[in-house]
Amino acid sequence: MILDRIHKENDIKKISKAELPRLAGEIRRFLIEKVSENGGHLGSNLGVVELTIALHRQLTLPKDKIIFDVGHQAYIHKLLTGRREGFDSLRRFGGMSGFPKRGESECDAFDTGHSSTSISVGLGLVKARDLQKENYTVVSVIGDGALTGGLAYEGLNNAAKLRTNYIIILNDNDMSISENVGGMSRYLQGIRTAEGYQNFKIGLEEFLLKSMPKSGEKVVDSLKRLKSSMKQLVVPGMLFEDMGITYLGPVDGHDITALEKAINEAKKIKHTVMIHVCTHKGKGYGPAERHPARFHGTGPFDIETGLPKSNSGKASYTDVFSTVMIKLAARNDKVVAITAAMPDGTGLKRYRNIYPERFADVGIAEGHAVTFAAGLAAGGMRPIVAIYSSFLQRAYDEILHDVCIGNLPVIFAIDRAGIVGADGETHQGVFDLSFLSTMPNMTIMAPKNKWELSDMMKFALTLDCPVAVRYPRATAYCGLQEYREEIDYGRSEMIFEEEDIAIFAVGAMVETGEQVRMILKEKGYSCTLINARFVKPIDEDMLLRISESHRLIVTLEDNVLAGGYGEHVTEYTEINNLRTAVLNVAVPDEFVPHGSIEILKEKLGMDPESVAGRIINKLGSMEADDTLIAAGVGTERPDNKDSGKKDSGKKDSGKKDV
Q1: At 624, is the pLDDT very low, low, confident or very high (cuts 50, 70, 90)?
Q2: In this structure, are residues 504 and 555 in contact, taking their beta carbons and an 8 Å threshold?
Q3: In 135-149, which positions are buried (b, 16+ CB within 10 angstroms) versus exposed (e)?
Q4: Which residue in 63, 215, 608, 610 could disulfide with 515, CB within 3.0 to 4.6 Å?
């Protein structure tokens, strides 16, 4: 295999041009095989094989810098920089990341994971290069989908002022995660298919083939090589040229020779140059070409069929949300659904098909999505904004300034909340409770199971204020079905009531709390389990009641400790001098790496066994303190009731029939 000859960066330059098409095929087969085993981003990577080869042949790494927007299409880059063995552990805990990481290789110029950042980063690297009087090439590779994000235009606006070399490669595959929307998509489509250019080209080809049956085909092939020049003659008013950015293209993104020529030309230009490259997402693998959205980010799959290897058939929280949205829209003609380039991922595809007039995909523009929703709410509609947790943080100011200050009834359906696993630091949804809790007028809820997600979405529509409902990337929990008390604003739900230890669990952590309770009971402890339901406002009445009969309150949340539910509970108990000690179980003050959710929770001490152990250790330290106090050493603690290592007899009093 030609691929066997690539062991480190720049080895690609030793491969002859004649061997490059074969190498591209080997890379595609390698990626399909590895991603089918581990999951990952396949479609986008299959589309940039030739582009990445051309970049690595024309640049010298790590001296030159490549910034991949989002970074999910950097698999070939990793392969060509000596990380072939890493694909066996791709996206697994302790293994290779699915995104560029500076700590993984000096050939990775920047840590990325979110969209529309590459131009701003590239400009920063260019400025640093020039200030330090260094000499290297900076290339930002950005997809056409990322150009729906406002940050990209802020970067372009400043890139137009440069008087030094900087290369932007526009990877135009007419897709982001789902099909692209908006004016930029139409503009680029116009460049690709400009009527005058296409009519002239097709007419000329037909004339030559008919009038010159023997040599016409060769002439047509020669003319095709001139198509960039012809395009410049007939495509009017190039947006990028008008901004002051030199535009090259469109270039066939699967023609390595043409790509190398364009990159080489771009390196000579003493200002910003954009190379418009047209690629095909999923190229070389039929299922990915036919279903690019499905293969944007995929789990393990069967190569022959393209179907997932494991499909439990059970509904995810996203599936439940999808069904609930359709029902809500059927009952209320003021409901409008909004997403930011994620109709498939957020479960709104079916809604869009049924209620297209009450659906908006704004592209990769989370801030705009939120302010657009604020305008809808001000106009009397009931907007529901469905965005992943880690992407919603990109709209912090818009939520605070445009929604909460006006106390507008916008509902935020926050998918992928909590620990999400293999995508790592940039995608873990562990900050939403903290940043949303700082905002006046905001109400925050989290469901314990699939039925409660449905109930909370319905309840949210009855409130005349901003509401966030957050749920995880997981199969919807079907346990505790019999516990379905009617939702009362700001009130938690008693599941099992005993004494001594009280677990207040948030959303998906209720399932963990249920398991922790069983472990503790097997060890002889008495334990109450409460479904927090509301993160803001917290249920102060329940905390007061519990403090009278329990010596330890434990909070469980899949959010960072700082500013989260547990800290608010602790603050309340301290301000009100409650008798009960508090143990917060949450994500520590660190970024969570990639890996399976199960392994990550174990490493963070948030799996049932670890939590039970932490509770027992806490009780042990409290008993040791009591011993010291009894001996007259230390500061007296409030007198707690019995140790609680027996059931109180108040079992399952929170149980209610559906």
Answers
A1: confident
A2: yes
A3: eebbbbbbbbbbbbb
A4: 608
Q: Indicate the pairing of strand 527-531 with strand 493-496.
A: antiparallel
- From residue 403, how far is each of 24, 376, 398, 525, 563 by CA, in Å? 49, 11, 7, 45, 21
Shared domain check, 163 and 16? yes
Start-end of H helices in 388-461: 389-392, 396-397, 432-437, 450-460
Q: Kindly state the helix (H) or strand (E) to which residue 383 belongs, with its residue range.
A: strand 382-388
**Residue-wise pLDDT tens digits, 66-75:** 999 999 999 9
Burial 125-134 (b: 16+ CB within 10 A, else e): bbeebeeeee
Nearest CA to 43 among 302, 287, 255? 287
Backbone torsions φ then ψ of 209, nearest 5 degrees? -70, -35
CATH of the domain at 512: 3.40.50.920
Are residues 588 and 515 part of one domain? yes
Looking at the fold, whether 535 and 400 belong to one and the same domain comes out as no
Tokens of 15: 């491969």
281 an active-site residue? yes
| Total number of domains constituting the chain | 3
Catalytic residue check, 394:
yes
DSSP strand E in 490-532: where? 493-496, 500-505, 527-531
Q: Judge if 565 and 461 occupy the same domain.
A: no
| Tens-digit pLDDT profile for residues 3-26 | 999 999 999 999 999 999 999 999
**Which residue do the tokens 């000329």 mark?**
204
- Give the start-end residues of each E strand in 221-279: 246-252, 272-278
Copy the structure tokens of residue 276: 């418009």
Catalytic residue among 28, 231, 281, 382: 281
- Find the Cα–Cα–Cα–Cα dihedral 175, 289, 69, 253, rounded to 10°: -100
Over range 164-183, report the average pLDDT.
74
The reply to whether 522 and 406 lie within a common domain is no
- Tens of pLDDT along 579-611? 899 999 999 999 999 999 999 999 999 999 999
**Is the CB of residue 337 less than 8 Å from the CB of residue 325?**
yes
Read off φ and ψ for residue 172, nearest 5 degrees: -100, 100
3-class DSSP assignment, residue 339? strand
Q: Taking residues 456-478, what's their average pLDDT?
A: 96
439 is a domain residue: no
**Minimal CA–CA distance to 606: which of 649, 573, 566?**
566
Residues 323, 282 share a domain:
no
- For residue 246, give the nearest of 165, 144, 173 by alpha carbon: 165
CATH number at residue 342: 3.40.50.970
Q: How confident is the model at residue 182 (pLDDT cuts 50, 70, 90)?
A: low
pLDDT digits (tens, 9 = 90+) for 101-115: 999 999 999 999 999
Q: Which tokens sit at 642?
A: 């019995």
User: Do 39 and 83 reside in the same domain of the chain?
Assistant: yes
Q: Is residue 476 part of a domain?
A: no
In a domain, 104, yes or no: yes
Of 28, 101, 394, 517, which residue is the catalytic one? 394
Angle at which helices 49-58 and 256-266 pack, to 10 degrees? 40
- Which listed residue (260, 366, 498, 557) is catalytic? 366
Question: How far is the C-alpha of 29 from the C-alpha of 31, rounded, in Å?
Answer: 6
Stretch (H or E) spanning 139: strand 138-143
Q: Which amino acid is at 231?
A: K
Parent domain of 404: 317-415+449-470
Number of residues written out for the chain: 658
